[in-house]
UniProtKB/TrEMBL annotation:
CDD domains: PGDH_1. InterPro entries: D-isomer_2_OHA_DH_cat_dom (IPR006139), D-isomer_DH_CS (IPR029753), D-isomer_DH_NAD-bd (IPR006140), NAD(P)-bd_dom_sf (IPR036291). This is Hydroxyacid dehydrogenase. One of its GO terms (molecular function) is oxidoreductase activity, acting on the CH-OH group of donors, NAD or NADP as acceptor. Residues 37-302 form the D-isomer specific 2-hydroxyacid dehydrogenase catalytic domain. The keyword NAD applies. Keywords: NAD, Oxidoreductase. It comes from Staphylococcus equorum.
Length: 316
């Protein structure tokens, strides 16, 4: 059994080698470093490399399982993976803690007018009458009720916010006072003070939010996107911000990354941009490797996986 990594893993490498003497581990910095012979006889690929594509997989005829260390799998050749019955797992759940903190930080930054205070500081202007708003009693709508939303919901409920959510069929989720089906999106938007997108990219979610949806939102709405940039056409988002259809947006993900310096989003004054950093965390490698180890135990002993398996047809 040969397992090839797409990342160097420091001390975790020796941990894996010692724990699984029957597995031949090959540690690399990505697909460009993997030797041709390793491609031919590897059984497992684990880690992350944005350069991995169908052409690479076509040279891995023995591949049985890909343990993808990111949550999103939309960049992978899912049709090929499905057609060749390659098992696929992801890093779902490990990013929830830091992403929930970012979401709450965005909300408090906005409601407590921290950006205004910083601008005042830069201008050496002391405004002791500056008054923020409470989040208590505000309604927050999560587009997607998965692990990120659920973790954030614990904090939002503790802050006495009303939490509602959108998922595929409107099934109830612990911590949410109300859930809507995806086809009820328009109704849900009208109830929200804060809208947070945490949805993955699928055929159903690409450009899900349209111009008509922004028109339904209250002009005081705060829109946050930490899911995928493709949830809304960039030109539609720009128009909504320019026309003040919403009050402010905090955007961490974009249709085309990295964001070009000439992008019009940089010139708008009612958007705060972060560079796809909400999922970054020092603990990620260790925690996602723990998931890999759990699955590896079952894969070696029983031939199946038990955690974070992804359906290539669905994309999650």
């Amino acid at each position: 059994m040969k397992a090839v990594s797409l990342k160097r893993m420091g001390d975790l490498e020796s941990k894996l080698i010692e724990a699984y003497p029957a597995v031949e581990f090959v540690f690399t910095k990505g697909v460009s470093e993997i030797e041709e012979q390793d491609k031919k006889d590897l059984d497992i690929i684990f880690g992350y490399d944005g350069k991995l594509n169908q052409s690479f997989l076509e040279n891995c005829p023995n591949l049985k399982w890909m343990a993808w260390y990111s949550t999103g799998v939309n960049s992978l050749p899912l049709d090929y993976i499905d057609k060749h019955n390659i098992l696929l797992t992801n890093g779902k759940g490990i990013h929830a803690k830091q992403m929930s903190e970012f979401i709450i930080a965005y909300i408090l930054d906005d409601y407590k007018k921290m950006r205004t205070s910083y601008i005042n500081q830069q201008n050496r202007y002391y405004d002791s009458k500056l008054t923020g708003s409470r989040v208590s009693g505000e309604t927050i709508l999560f587009l997607g009720t998965g692990s990120i939303a659920q973790y954030t919901t614990n904090i939002a409920n503790a802050m006495n916010m009303k939490v509602i959510g959108i998922n595929t069929n409107g099934h109830s989720v612990e911590g949410f006072s109300k859930t809507f089906a995806l086809n009820e999106l328009s109704n849900a938007l009208t109830e929200a003070d804060i809208i947070v997108n945490t949805l993955p990219e699928t055929e159903q979610t690409i450009h899900l939010i349209t111009k008509a949806h922004f028109e339904l939102m209250n002009e005081t709405t705060l829109f946050i996107n930490v899911g995928r940039g493709t949830i809304v056409d960039e030109s539609v988002l720009i128009e909504a911000l320019k026309e003040k259809q919403i009050r402010h947006a905090y955007i961490d993900v974009f249709e085309n990354e990295p964001l070009n310096p000439s992008n019009e989003l940089y010139s708008l004054d009612n958007i705060t941009i972060t560079a796809h950093i909400t999922g970054n965390g020092k603990e990620n490698m260790s925690e996602v490797t723990d998931i890999f180890i759990k699955n590896l135990n079952h894969f070696l002993n029983k031939g199946f996986l038990i955690e974070n398996e992804v359906d290539p047809k669905q994309g999650y």
